[in-house]
Design goal:
Blueprint lengths: L2 E8 L1 H5 L3 H10 L3 E8 L3 H7 L9 H8 L4 E9 L1 H9 L12 H5 L8 E3 L3 H11 L8
Antiparallel strand pairs: 1-3, 1-4, 2-3
The structure holds 2'-deoxyadenosine-5'-diphosphate and magnesium ion.
The site of 2'-deoxyadenosine-5'-diphosphate has 10 residues, from helix 4.
Organism: Aquamicrobium ahrensii
Function: Major role in the synthesis of nucleoside triphosphates other than ATP. The ATP gamma phosphate is transferred to the NDP beta phosphate via a ping-pong mechanism, using a phosphorylated active-site intermediate.
Protein name: Nucleoside diphosphate kinase
């Protein structure tokens, strides 16, 4: 498997608790390299656009509210199997189901405030990276 890139986000519930460093360390310890990073307080409109795939879900309003409630850190991660590796180190969406040692098991507060986002497939990774970063901002 060649080097792959994925999109990651440290969510407002985590930046609020000063967990940016701890979460980045967990990603780096898992073999992922941060090749782009920016702190951004997204607008409701940006959050709605980013999570458009979930717009019919009952939790969409809550999700947009929470994602625009404070700063996030948007990142591009690079590594072998980066998409799957990142999902593995993040843990299950609901922290109650997340495996021991995962970021969500260690830090998430609830299914809605679950500390991190990670792309789930090559197509969404490409789309999500492009949503937040231009090519020149990614330095591998
Ligand atoms: P993931 O972030 O693991 O890819 P997802 O794509 O199914 O999970 O959902 C996106 C986000 O939406 C998730 O990180 C938190 C929120 N969410 C999902 N299910 C939820 C629920 N049942 N109640 C509240 N928020 C939810
Ligand atoms: Mg998802």
């Amino acid at each position: 498997m060649a080097l792959e890139r994925t999109f990651s986000m440290i969510k407002p519930d985590a930046t609020r608790r000063n967990l940016t460093g701890a979460i980045t360390k967990a990603l780096e310890d898992a073999g992922l390299r941060v090749v782009a990073s920016r702190r951004v307080w997204m607008s409701r409109r940006e959050a709605e656009g980013f999570y458009a795939v979930h717009k019919e879900r009952p939790f969409f309003g809550e999700l947009v509210e929470s994602m625009s409630s404070g700063p996030t850190v948007v990142q591009v991660l690079e590594g072998e199997n980066a998409i799957a590796r990142n999902r593995e180190v993040m843990g299950a969406t609901n922290p109650a189901d997340a495996a021991e040692g995962t970021i969500r098991k260690s830090f998430a507060l609830s299914i809605g405030e679950n500390s991190v986002h990670g792309s789930d497939a090559p197509e969404t990774a490409a789309q999500e990276i492009k949503y937040w970063f231009s090519d020149t901002e990614i330095v591998g």
